[in-house]
Amino acid sequence: MNQLPLNDPIHLAARLGELLQTRGWRLVTAESCTGGWVAKIITDIAGSSLWFDRGFVTYSNAAKQDMLGVNSALIAAQGAVSEAVVQAMVRGALAHSLAEIAIAISGIAGPNGGSISKPVGTVWIGWSLPNGSIHSRCFQFTGDREAVRYQAVTTALHELLMLLEMQSK
Amino acid sequence: MNQLPLNDPIHLAARLGELLQTRGWRLVTAESCTGGWVAKIITDIAGSSLWFDRGFVTYSNAAKQDMLGVNSALIAAQGAVSEAVVQAMVRGALAHSLAEIAIAISGIAGPNGGSISKPVGTVWIGWSLPNGSIHSRCFQFTGDREAVRYQAVTTALHELLMLLEMQSK
User: pLDDT tens, B151-162?
Assistant: First the structure.
């Protein structure tokens, strides 16, 4: 893992694909602020249909509710960019797919939408592993909209690889 | 429209966004071979939440059935890369979203999956307009996987703009 650069999403996705194929696992993505970029990177790879099941681009709150079953009261209470919502997105993605592993991302890419408590660059990422565990972390990325989204994509892939490799030890 | 280069997806998406915002319309995407790339390009644009509702990355046939309600018998009879399936994807995307306009893409990006009747580069694209009409066309793109996917993304956006501008005349 250490030789994998955080800024090389295609190699991260390829490594993830090798690992998933070896184990017979499939991936589902649920993306808000990254808007399908993780799915795009994954499907850059020929043969990714063997380990990538589907992706949800839940850009609107209505989409999070309809496609993933995220409770509207939860979004109202915690905000779409929150640990509770990203974990609900992970669970919803698993429940509405054939996958064993899920990535969910919800954040504020900017330039608008930030606040004092959740400034631009705040991104919650959640992952579920085949053992049923759910992991979630909040990141504070810097830079413009493109930079925030790019860091969210690479971090989501990189951290999932780390979690899977830790689990297998 | 004539001044819009076909190879500049971000400007095509921005122009589409201006047009949709002016009319109060929202877009939904259903992507197979492009794997979320259209949604990624759209959400590159700040404020796209005003006109982009959600995206379906229906990479597997099961995803096309579950997420968009495409009939499995239709996929079996016509193939996932066919006019009937891309039109069913358009209808399913509209039915499972709040959008008035849909883009659907199903093709063979390669390097594998091609056949004599449907070689690598064969891509069906479908669009629905707010007047209820559905349009679909088959394209034969050239180049490698990246080139085929890129041409599918730019063509999907470019043709939708052309259809909307023709409709408004």
Answer: 999 999 999 999
